[in-house]
Structure formats: structure tokens, C-alpha cells
Amino acid sequence: MYRLAPGSVEEEAHAAAMLVGAVGERMQRLTQAYGEWQFFEPVPYFDLAPAQVERLTHISERVSTVHAVFFVDPLLPAFQSVYDCAIATFQPNPAGLKAGRLDELIERWRRLIAVLHLSRRHLSEDVAFLSLNAGIEEQERWAAVAPRRPDRGTPWHTTGRLMLPTLTLAVEFPLPAFRQSGRLRRLRRSHQRRRAFAGRSRKQ
Question: Which of 32, 95, 133, 178 has the fewest CB neighbours in a 10 Å radius?
Fold first, then answer.
């Protein structure tokens, strides 16, 4: 399900949109499935390896809600191509660019942006995607780490800090009562008070 074959921009965008639909379905089911686990295990739920879960998902429990994020972009061949090229370009020489690599990186980056834009166009009328779309949240994450004034000629300079398209999905739902500290006790007390009140009303 998660493995996309490389192809043209159109082919990859279509496959990415289909993948988003499949992941989105699991994200929506998570709102009910989460409470069925004493301790939620994303590895079997998403059918991913532990390393993939660490890279592709983020699930956090708050006081009364659960916030779940699935980063779809890294599954795209175009994303993986950019990542590999960026490592080859910057890692060997952090102080400068490896000769001949930058133009290739920029070209791969532009292709990735084209795939993401077209994928989002395919999903523009998909109600499930629109309800799970975490584009703004992801752009804010990017803005926090991207250079405020990117060097001219670098890939992110061609896109802009807040204009990055993304297929990231997110959902937030109530934390099951048994996981909320003190909430189950409050619910039981409330139920007991309602029963006592109903009993008094019947006697009157």
C-alpha cells in the first residue's frame, strides 16, 4: 500500500492521491479504534515497521484529546529522490555545495513540488482529504526551520517559506475516558448524581 512506483509527474501524482485516500481512511478509523487499545500500537495499526512509524507518524496524547499526524510526503518517490540528492549535495561538505550537484537538486525539488501540487488538485474535492488536510500545520513547521532569507539558487528559494504544498494528514479526537486522569471518576459521579436525582423525582 505504501510503496509507489516511480513514473511521470502525472502517474506519481495519481498514485499519491490514491495513497492519501487509503491512509486517510485509517486516520478516520483511528478515532474509534484508538480506544480499543489499552496502549495504542501504531506499528500493527498502520502496518508499518517501527522505523517507518517513527519517521511517518506522530501521535500525542493531551489532557483530553489525541492528536495524530501522518506524513505522507516521504513515501513519494519524488521526495525520496530529493532527499537522496540533498544528502549527496550537502552532507559531504557542510560548509559549501558539492560541485555539479545543486542544479540537479533544484530540478528534483521542482519535480517534487509539481507532483504535490497535482496530487492536491486530484484531491481538491475529496471531503475526507479536506477534513484531514494538515497543510497549514506542516507549513508552519517548515517555516520554523527554513532560512528566513534562503540563498538564491537553493531549492527552497524557488518555492518560498510558506508556499510548500504537502499531503500531510492530521486528526484530533477525544482521548478515551479510561485514559484521562480523573475523568472516568467524574463521569461515574455524574452518573450516580443523575440516578439519585431521577430516584428522588419518582418518589415525589
Answer: 95
Tell how far CA 17 is from the center of its chain: 14
Mean per-residue pLDDT pooled into runs of 10, the chain (204 residues): 92 97 96 88 94 94 89 96 87 60 87 95 95 85 64 57 81 81 56 62 55
CA-angle at 69, arms to 179 and 166, nearest 5°: 165
Rounded to two decimals, the pTM is: 0.78
Residue 166 grid coordinates: 504537502
Helix, strand, coil distribution of the chain in percent, nearest 5: 60, 10, 30
The backbone region for 71, taken as left when phi is positive above 0, alpha when psi lies in -120 to 50, beta otherwise, is beta
Nearest to 66 by CA among 33, 25, 20, 44: 33
Q: Are 38 and 84 in contact (CB under 8 A)?
A: no
Measured over the CA atoms of residue 100, residue 101, residue 103 and residue 104, the dihedral's sign is: positive
